[in-house]
Design goal:
Layout (H helix, E strand, L loop, with lengths): L2 E3 L2 E6 L11 H4 L6 E7 L9 E4 L4 H30 L6 H30 L5 E5 L2
Parallel strand pairs: 3-5
Antiparallel strand pairs: 1-2, 2-3, 4-5
């Protein structure tokens, strides 16, 4: 562990026996010099100690869906709504322009929504890793 502050711990990850079965093994980079992450320090660990962390099952998949798929869904929804608006007010602008404006607008809104959700998750400790024990 690297540092501790406000009940959280900054942990440098190293590859362990559980890494082979982990769904995030290809993206984590724990074996390539380590990777730091912030975890809830339930075990009361101190800097320099080796710790075991636990990540909620499915958290990686849920986070990936939120970060990658929600903006795409909002982009297509915005394009569809732009098409609806172009039919409601014909002659003002081409349908493609309405679709582009609607798509970009909802894409940007989805990014702001994801940032708000990220702040909420950080404060409720929902998808965050947890330090569960100190290794001896």
């Amino acid at each position: 562990m690297v540092s501790v502050s406000d009940g959280n711990a900054n942990v440098r990850m190293i590859e362990g026996e559980g890494c082979q079965a982990c769904s995030a093994a290809g993206t984590c980079k724990a074996g390539a010099g380590g990777r730091e992450l912030e975890a809830v320090n339930r075990a009361g660990a101190k800097p320099g100690q080796h710790v075991v962390i636990d990540i909620e099952s499915g958290a990686f998949l849920k986070a990936s869906f939120i970060v990658y798929m929600v903006p795409v869904i909002f982009l297509f929804l915005g394009a569809y709504l732009g098409d609806v608006v172009s039919r409601a007010v014909p002659g003002v602008m081409e349908a493609e322009n309405w679709q582009a404006i609607g798509g970009v607008l909802l894409l940007v809104l989805s990014i702001f929504g994801i940032r708000l959700y990220d702040r909420k998750v950080k404060s409720t400790k929902g998808l965050r890793p947890v330090v569960v024990k100190i290794k001896m």
